[in-house]
Amino acid sequence: MQQTVTLLKGDGIGPEIADAVREIIDATGAPITWEEAEAGLDCYHKHGTPLPQETLEIIKHNKVALKSPTTTPVGTGHKSVNVAIRKSLDLFANVRPAKSLPGVHTRYSNVDIWLVRENVEDTYAGIEYMQTPDVAQSLKIITRPGSEAIMRYTFEMARAMNRKRVTCVHKANIHKMSDGLFLECFREMAKEYPDLHADDIIVDNACMQLVTKPEQFDVMVLPNLYGDIVSDLCAGLIGGLGVAPGGNIGTEIAVFEAVHGSAPDIAGKGLANPTALLLSGIQMLQHIGFYEHASRIEDAMRLALVSGIKTRDLGGNASTKEFTRAIIAELPKQDDSEYHEPNPIRYSNKITTSKPKTDWKLVGTDVFVQSATLPDVPTRIGKFELQQIANRGTAVTKENAHDILLVDVFRCRYMATEDITEMDILDVLREVTSAGWKWMHVENLHNAGKNAAYSKA
Predict the structure, then answer these.
(1) 447/414 same-domain check
(2) pLDDT value at residue 427
(3) Structure confidence at residue 360 (pLDDT)
(4) Average pLDDT, the chain
(5) pTM score, two decimals?
(6) Residues 321 and 407 in one domain
(7) Which residues pair with 37 in a beta bridge?
(8) Based on the domain organization, do 118 and 67 belong to the same domain?
(9) Which of 17, 198, 307, 373 is the most exposed place for a label (fewest CB within 10 A)?
(10) Residues 6 or more apart from 236 whose CB is under 8 A from it?
(11) pLDDT of residue 448
């Protein structure tokens, strides 16, 4: 089966390491046809955009891409190419293997972890604004469909890669609703995979455990923000971003990339280390089912490293081309008698989102008002009673107002004493406005069993 792969050479050291990786993959005889497309700083200078629509269309058509580092134009208002690709193609899973390499000296020698990071939601959804000139707010978005999608992919990948354990990393002890929903989806999905051991851990404990006993972890699945931090932590365990691969996976499309920068200061000098992009290429081969080719490259790379042939950043003195030739020389010959048809990772993208519970109903509202001091808002408005005034999440009263560092946004929580509708919320806003208070935004409160749930109005 011939597979066409989109190749984005990027800029800086990107073209050098892209050519090296392409040469190594081709040397295995993998049935891949390469189609180059433009992205990055050079592309921006030529076309006025670092990521042309034509490039996105090529990726969509081929379904698989391998991307070298790109430089984001400074002060132009353009998003990074990485972010733009992930958002445009809905690549919801960021997969970052972290595996110890021979000849790469670190404090650890037995790390073998696959991190799966939700790639679209969380605080990275970019929903933030200034409430007042002194107060910024960013929303943490966790959804059931998004969480189910990342959990389904994680368990299917773990099974396909013959892993044994999947660990959900969260902060549900504090973020009881957002991370709580993420953890709930994990536990529900785990029931469908009884062959895999499933457990969970709080993110701060996970970080401590990773730097004390990393070998205990196998596959880890995390929300976007924690995943960003923990994946770089794990890269540090194995030698840094120069040996850290990454893949961005969607329902039908996948883009694999080196996560390090474009290093323009060493571009063209033959010093670039292609290891991270090569490992991403191995990950790509595994994704599309060319496991034998991936295994042969990994074995050859390890033999080259053991023999001491390394680039300068890894403590050696080999040039990019010398390192590339050393890996190709170590490639074991393909045994056609052991050839198997590609077996790509398959998973269902069916989302089993439950419908809202029958007890889901409007029970109150949080009105955020701007005030330099504790606001004297009405304590009773129609069907509502003022339950609490809070500042930065801390309840404020006349008694403790002088003991707390206050900012100029106060959350006034009004809870209903009887059944209400959205029209009743408007009465609260009119009354607060009539009383002379400037409200910044409002969040409606709904009940959800034992907990209150919030939805932006």
Answers:
(1) yes
(2) 94
(3) 81
(4) 90
(5) 0.87
(6) no
(7) 8
(8) no
(9) 373
(10) none
(11) 60
Does some domain include residue 355?
no
Residues 131 and 171 in one domain: yes
CATH number at residue 423: 3.30.70.1570
Q: Give 125's DSSP letter.
A: G
- Torsion sign (Cα): 415, 420, 421, 425: negative
pLDDT reported for residue 80: 77
> Would you say residue 184 has pLDDT above 50?
yes
Tokens 């733009």, residue located: 84
CB atoms within 10 A of CB 200: 18
- What is the rounded (10 degree) CA torsion for 125, 131, 135, 140? -20
Q: What are the angstrom distances between the C-alpha of 230 and each of 248, 267, 297, 367?
A: 16, 29, 27, 36
- Give the C-alpha distances (Å, rounded to integers) separating 445 from 224, 361, 376, 392, 415: 26, 8, 22, 18, 8
Same domain, 220 and 156: yes
Residues 234 and 135 in one domain: yes
- CATH code for the domain of 6: 3.40.718.10
Q: Could you read off the pLDDT of 292-338 as tens digits, one per residue? A: 999 999 999 999 999 999 999 998 999 999 999 999 999 987 766 55
Which residues constitute the domain of residue 201? 107-238
Looking at the fold, whether 233 and 157 belong to one and the same domain comes out as yes
Q: Is residue 347 part of a domain?
A: no
b/e 371-396 (16+ beta carbons within 10 angstroms → b): beebbebbeebbbbebeebebeeeeb
**Which residue, of 238, 266, 291, is where some domain finishes?**
238
Using CB atoms within 10 Å of the CB of residue 152, give its burial: 0 to 12 exposed, 13 to 18 middle, 19+ buried: buried
Whether residue 7 is contained in a domain is answered as yes
User: Which pLDDT belongs to residue 353?
Assistant: 54
Around Cβ 137, how many Cβ atoms within 10 Å? 14
* Inter-residue contact 237 to 217 (CB < 8 Å): no
Residue 420 exposed, middle or buried by CB count within 10 Å (0-12, 13-18, 19+): buried
Query: What token pair was written down for 283?
Result: 């990950």
Length of the chain: 457
Mean pLDDT, rounded, for 36-49: 88
Res 332: pLDDT: 82
> Which is nearest to 106 in space by CA: 182, 214, 258?
214
pLDDT digits (tens, 9 = 90+) for 229-258: 999 999 999 999 999 999 999 989 999 999
SS3 427: helix
Q: How far apart are CA 234 and CA 165, in angstroms?
A: 17
Phi, psi of 145 (to 5 degrees): -60, -40
pLDDT tens for each residue of 95-119: 999 999 998 989 998 999 999 999 9
Q: For residues 113 and 111, give the distance between their C-alpha atoms in angstroms, rounded to a whole number.
A: 6
197 and 229 together in one domain: yes
Say how many domains are in the chain.
3
Backbone torsion region of residue 237, taken as left when φ is above 0, otherwise alpha when ψ lies between -120 and 50, otherwise beta: alpha
